Amino acid sequence: MNREKKLLWIVPCVLVLWTSVGLAVQPKKPMPPRFSFENDPAEVLNNYPLGIINEQDAFAHHGGPVRKVTLPNGKRGWLYKAGEKVGVPSIYVLEFSDDGNVIDVLHKDYRYKIGHSALQYQYLQHIEAELQTLGPGPGE
């Protein structure tokens, strides 16, 4: 009977330890910047890890979207709002691939005519210097 009691304690402990080790070995995903008035939209778009964050990670990090949308290209999108409390509303839209990863982040500030995307900003970082611009500006 004493041996059975020991086994009852050892088995759960081994399972907990095994699960902990398994979780510790998983690679860390870079967390994206938060959508807020304090964060510069250009920095958010420049630093958003495209193709890495899935729907579950996005939900855990940003919370639920204000609205789920279907984008003109047929992809699914999640709409988030920022800056409303300080009178400068802007929106961010996460665009998801068919396998559920964030492949682009769209940003539109209501003060300007044209929005910007993370793919656009990140592309501009990698093109040749003579083709590189300062990035898309407000109202361009």
Give a written overview of the molecule.
- With 140 residues, this protein is an alpha+beta fold.
- The protein has a domain at 41-124.
- The longest helix has 24 residues, at 2-25.
- It has helices at 2-25, 41-47, 55-62, 118-124; strands at residues 67-70, 76-82, 90-96, 102-109, 116-117.
- The chain has a five-stranded antiparallel β-sheet with strand order 1-2-3-4-5.
List the helices and strands and how they pair.
Elements: H1 2-25, H2 41-47, H3 55-62, E1 67-70, E2 76-82, E3 90-96, E4 102-109, E5 116-117, H4 118-124
Antiparallel strand pairs: 1-2, 2-3, 3-4, 4-5
Helix pairs in contact: 2-4
Give a quick rundown of the structure.
The protein has 140 residues and is of the alpha+beta class. The chain has four helices and five strands. Strands 1-2-3-4-5 form a five-stranded antiparallel β-sheet.
What are the salient characteristics of this protein?
single chain, 140 residues, alpha+beta, 4 helices, elongated
Mean pLDDT: 81
Q: How large is the count of helical segments?
A: 4
Overall strand count? 5
Radius of gyration: 21 Å
Structural class category: alpha+beta
User: Looking across the biggest beta sheet, what order are the strands in?
Assistant: 1-2-3-4-5
- Strand proportion, as a percent range, falls in 15-25%
Uncertain runs with pLDDT below 50, 5 residues or more? Answer: none
Euclidean distance between termini CA atoms: 79 Å
Helical content class: 25-40%
Task: Give the CA-based shape.
Answer: elongated
